[in-house]
Amino acid sequence: MDHMDVNPMGLDGFEFCEFTSPDPDRMAAQLEQFGFVVASRHPTRDVVRYKQGCINLLLNREATGHAADFRRDHGPSASAMAFRVQDAKAAYDNAIAAGAKPAPAGAALDGIPALEGIGGSILYLVDRHGAAGSLYDDWDQVPGAAEAEAENNVGLDLLDHLTHNVRRGQMRTWAEFYGRIFGFEEQKYFDIKGKATGLFSQAMIAPDKAIRIPLNESQDDKSQIEEFIKDYNGEGIQHLALTTPDIFETVEKLRARGVKLQDTIETYYELVDKRVPNHGHDLERLRKNRILIDGNVGEEGLLLQIFTENMFGPIFFEIIQRKGNEGFGNGNFQALYESIELDQIRRGVVTVDA
């Protein structure tokens, strides 16, 4: 089987994720607080590219069009994402032939081939990357952006994965969509239960092993997935995971800047040495920063991660450092779920039977 059969679209990682908000200045300030800087501006549209490492996040402030409609419907939201492909037109034609829907007429930026994505967002197919130059070559470059980035960055480097929260009964639909159109495979399946609520999660991974999309579906009408769908007014991107080569340094910088990170139940740290023997990390520094650790020192490798509190509406970010572990933190998934559920219980969204 040749390479193109394995990876029919020539996928090669995420190109960008696009955000929009009724309060774009606040969103811009949050991105800068998170270590991003403005690298370039679209020459004719009110779209700004924020950059850190190899991560591109667009802020779309256009007064009319898809992003404007999207923020009207969803508030602060992720209105689009982009996959890198080998040949955008061929990938688009193949996707439509396989049953994908085109993005609404006139909705896409610069006529880039685009499909309808999760919750009515746009899924772009971009072939200007690497040797072909960059999508942003024609944009207005911001003078001094590289120096500003060096000064402002917190060490984030790659968009590792992003999740979709879907309505009950739709997990299979979206797993099938990514499988049929792009050749994604099912990587891990989770059945997570808290005290009163639960979720199913199906992690999808692309043939390039660089695009990962876990799909989350509620098991009931009260879980944090259902709460997201209610708050967001629909299905959508729930969190983005960004990699760092040194999670301690990144998290300490973010904390110093006032970024709010998820807390973890204290008992989590009492069990770390037993759950992940010989992990070799400073337990006190893990505990102080509320960083989660998963995996094992042997074959599987380790993974360290932490999640922010909600930043853009109900969307949050994950900071992740992979040390040979390509999973999603099975043990941490449960711990995270329980900590969010505790917050739901405190807020009275979820009640636990005595």
TrEMBL record:
Cofactor note: Binds 1 Fe cation per subunit.
Molecular function terms from GO: 4-hydroxyphenylpyruvate dioxygenase activity; metal ion binding
Protein name as annotated: 4-hydroxyphenylpyruvate dioxygenase
Cofactor: Fe cation
Transmembrane as UniProt keyword: no
Claim: Transferase is one of the keywords in the record: no
Keywords: Dioxygenase, Iron, Metal-binding, Oxidoreductase, Pyruvate, Repeat
Organism: Sphingomonas rubra
CDD domains: HPPD_C_like, HPPD_N_like
Family the entry assigns: Belongs to the 4HPPD family.
One Pfam family named in its UniProt record: Glyoxalase
List of residues binding Fe cation: 161, 239, 318
Superkingdom classification of source: Bacteria
UniProt record, GO biological process: L-tyrosine catabolic process
Domain VOC: residue ranges: 13-128, 158-309
InterPro entries: 4OHPhenylPyrv_dOase, 4OHPhenylPyrv_dOase_C, 4OHPhenylPyrv_dOase_N, Glyas_Bleomycin-R_OHBP_Dase, Glyas_Fos-R_dOase_dom, VOC_core
